[in-house]
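Record minuted for completeness.

…
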Amino acid sequence: MSGPVLEVRDLRRDYVTSGGFLRPAKVVHAVKGVSFTLEKGKTLAVVGESGCGKSTLARMITLIDAPTSGDIRIDGIPASAAQVTKQMRQKVQIVFQNPYGSLNPRQKIGDVLSEPLLLNTSLSGAERRERAMAMLTRVGLQPEHFNRYPHMFSGGQRQRIAIARALMLNPSFLVLDEPVSALDLSVQAQILNLLKDLQEEFGLTYVFISHDLSVVRYIADEVMVMYFGDVVEHGRREAVFADPQHAYTKTLFAATPKADVEHIRARIAAKKALIA
């Protein structure tokens, strides 16, 4: 039996803020000793309010930022700053909240998808085109989109393109950093269903960064709650949502509007009573 895809042990990230007149420099502990393992084909959701450290954690496990201390292993291989290779970077890809910002506006979509293969494989031009076209259609776009530019697509379509590009090198896992928060609700559902379908088809592994608990409840296998750089709760999705243990988790859940039919009806009735 194979080991976990991602192992994180006591990961820490500190930032030193500049001082000023009569004001000494300060150390900000953005991430404070985070540890977890993630098995193949599973989704770990990292949740918390802005500033809790979840995006800093994402930048470390995608090998963008080096941790102050701690260990990261991808497919059992250490991924410290001194050991990160080109092959190691191919094992992890990230999908951002705003795909337009990460797509070159002067590149046609076919070139966006083919570029990772051009830089990292010895495939011929015809083979690169064939793979890019296959991935384009797999994420729900059409062959005629191949020669169009990013500005010609909607937000949901651009996110599909970003997901397709992230998958071109068959990574070990994807980090999805608020991938649907900028989209309309109906489009969010389409992208989440796509992510689930791709996970089932290819055995994908996700780290899903989000503040939206309704999205997390739909897509996650495990939930990890962060608060000021600390992990305050971590467990199976059903257990965390059914019986949160930490006071912060309870507060976070209580502050989230209920979206089911009964709660919507109750809110409408309450408004009518006030008007009457």
DSSP finds eleven helices and ten strands in the chain.
